[in-house]
Design a protein that fits this description.
- By secondary structure, this protein is an all-alpha fold.
- It has a two-stranded antiparallel sheet with strand order 1-2.
- A hairpin with a 2-residue loop joins strand 1 and strand 2.
- The two termini are 30 Å apart.
């Protein structure tokens, strides 16, 4: 019997989770329900933790091995400038698109005036928010959110081991880049044993990734079942204008802007790329974590798109850390939406400040579920938007579904950069 492809297994798991999660609402009083949800939670947590377990050794080994294979510092500089240039272009286009969409649809207004019903939702949010939301936005954490310098401090952690343990990929990335560049400054013969070590470590991490992905359907089923069950219909209905505004903007960026860039910049058929990335996109959508999806993204880009390990090892870990198209777009829409609800008219200069803030904070956002909510709080506090704390708690009610969508956009943007850079380096893609 022919084995079912990995992406079809994940799709089946997603559909089954949505159906079962919806049906569970009818059994709220059943004695077995909480036990079943705990089992689903366990399956999801184990899968997500398994992916996170290999992030640090995978990122370190892939970046160092990739840089060591470049032709010295000049090779790194050439690829680095191309990659950062592409990431800046896509992130800026995402933020501007988000700004245009939210100002066109105006989800925070009703009949041209601030939506009083949504304002009431914001006012009642602290009482309705669950414990996890309140913990995430407790006063002491809000104080930290106002500190812009924290983003730059994470680039050079005082303890690289601690940074890795806490999942601070930005510091880990900078250290790995410095380590890899330093290796190129020594004679090749002297560095050969170290190059072999990191290359072998990277190969081992990829094999472990393949093992973990065998369990992906079970883990994804567990996560999505619980998510669907917990998604409240009431708040969703009230925040529907905002919810669909974000989805429309994300869809336009993913299915129009990025494919156009693939076609116009590199002459790549977008359909081929979507096919190559389907497993990674489904994993990103299910886990809401671009960092956890990184091992799968690297596997898809190399095995399905044909990008070399050298290029993928440099562009993708960098993208998972600094390139957050969907997050930057979402932050922009969320801030303008809250300003509309609160009756605060933002002039062009104020909106440009939001654009710049979204660009900067998206770089520092951790690739884990709902991390961008803290970045939104930073922007709202610095933009002088009233009621920021309550608004964040209200948005948190529908954030999980939007987080899943914007994570898929983030991952797709990273993969687009990998194939565009590979094409510019003369690599043959998609078995051309």
């Amino acid at each position: 019997m022919k084995k079912i492809a990995a992406h079809w297994q994940i799709i089946i798991a997603l559909i089954a989770a949505v159906i079962i999660g919806s049906l569970l609402k009818k059994f709220d009083d059943a004695p077995w329900l909480q036990s079943f949800l705990k089992i689903c939670d366990l399956l999801g947590d184990l899968f997500l933790q398994a992916l996170k377990m290999i992030i640090v050794p995978l990122v370190v080994s892939s970046i160092i091995a990739g840089l060591a294979s470049l032709a010295g510092f000049d090779g790194f500089k050439r690829m680095g400038l191309k990659t950062l240039g592409f990431y800046l272009l896509t992130t800026l286009s995402a933020v501007v698109l988000g700004l245009l969409i939210v100002n066109t649809i105006q989800p925070g207004l009703k009949d041209g005036k601030p939506n009083a019903e949504l304002r009431q939702v914001f006012d009642e949010a602290p009482a309705q928010a669950d414990d996890s939301a309140k913990e995430k936005f407790a006063p002491d954490r809000q104080a930290k959110a106002k500190d812009w310098t924290a983003i730059f401090k994470r680039m050079l952690p005082s303890n690289i081991i601690k940074a890795g343990a806490e999942g601070q990929l930005l510091g880990l990335l900078v250290f790995s880049l410095m380590f890899g560049i330093a290796m190129t400054q020594f004679p090749p013969d002297q560095m050969q044993p170290m190059r072999d070590f990191f290359q072998t470590l990277n190969d081992v991490m990829i094999r472990i990734t393949q093992w973990i992905m065998v369990c992906a359907p079970l883990g994804i089923f567990g996560m999505i079942t619980v998510t669907v069950y917990k998604s409240g219909a009431e708040v969703f209905q009230q925040l529907a204008p905002y919810f669909f505004t974000v989805l429309i903007a994300l869809a336009l960026h993913m299915f129009l802007v990025l494919p156009l860039l693939l076609k116009l910049v590199a002459g790549i058929n977008p359909i081929n790329h979507f096919k190559a990335m389907k497993t990674a996109l489904l994993t990103a959508f299910s886990t809401s974590s671009s960092s956890a999806t990184l091992p799968v993204t690297m596997r898809c880009v190399q095995d399905n798109a044909g990008v070399s390990k050298k290029t993928a090892s440099f562009t993708l870990p960098l993208g998972a850390t600094v390139n957050m198209d969907g997050t930057a777009l979402y932050e922009c829409i969320a801030v303008i939406f809250v300003a509309q609800v609160m009756g605060l008219e933002m002039a062009f200069a104020a909106q440009m400040l939001v654009v710049i803030s979204a660009l900067l904070t998206s770089i520092g956002v951790a690739g884990v579920p709902s991390a961008s909510m803290v970045a939104i709080l930073i922007i709202m506090n610095n933009s002088g938007i009233p009621g920021a704390d309550n608004a964040i708690l209200a948005l948190f009610a529908v954030d999980r579904l939007l987080d899943m969508s914007r994570t898929a956009v983030n991952v797709f943007g990273d993969s687009c950069a990998a194939v565009v850079i590979a094409k510019s380096e003369g690599e043959t893609l998609y078995q051309e």
